[in-house]
Amino acid sequence: MSPDEHITHYLDAVCRHLYWPCYRVRVRRELTDHILCHATQLRATQGLDEQEAVQQALRALGDPDALGLSLRQARCSLRALLPRLLTGVIWAAIAACAVYLILILIPR
Asked: Is the dihedral angle over the CA atoms 59, 63, 65, 69 positive or is it negative?
C-alpha cells in the first residue's frame, strides 16, 4: 500500500465517526496537513523513507476510531448542546409572550 493509500484509509476511519459534512472536510484537511508535516519532519530528522515516515506519523496520532469519536464528542457534546437548546426555548417563550401581549393590546 502506498503512503497516500495509508493516509486515505486512516482519514476514512476517522471521518466515519463525524456527522457534519463541512466538519468532516475541515478535519480531513487539517489531519492531512498534520500527517504530511510530521512525515516530512521525520524524513528530515531521522532519514526515514516516505512510507515509514507516514506510518510513524499515523501511529503517533493513535487509533483512528478513538480519534474520530473524540472529535465527534468535541464537536457536539451534550454540555455544548444543552445550553443552546435552553437558550432557544427561552427565546421562543419570550417571543410567544410578546405576540400574546401584542394581540391583547390591539383594540378590537
From this structure: negative
What is the spatial distance between Cα 12 and Cα 16, in angstroms, rounded to a whole number?
6
Confidence (pLDDT) at 92: 97
Return the half-sphere exposure (C-beta side, CA atoms, 13 A cut-off) of residue 91: 6
DSSP output for the chain: --HHHHHHHHHHHHHTT---HHHHHHHHHHHHHHHHHHHHHHHHHH---HHHHHHHHHHHH--HHHHHHHHHHHHS-HHHHHHHHHHHHHHHHHHHHHHHHHHHHS--
Q: CB of 15 within 8 A of CB of 68?
A: yes
pTM value is 0.69
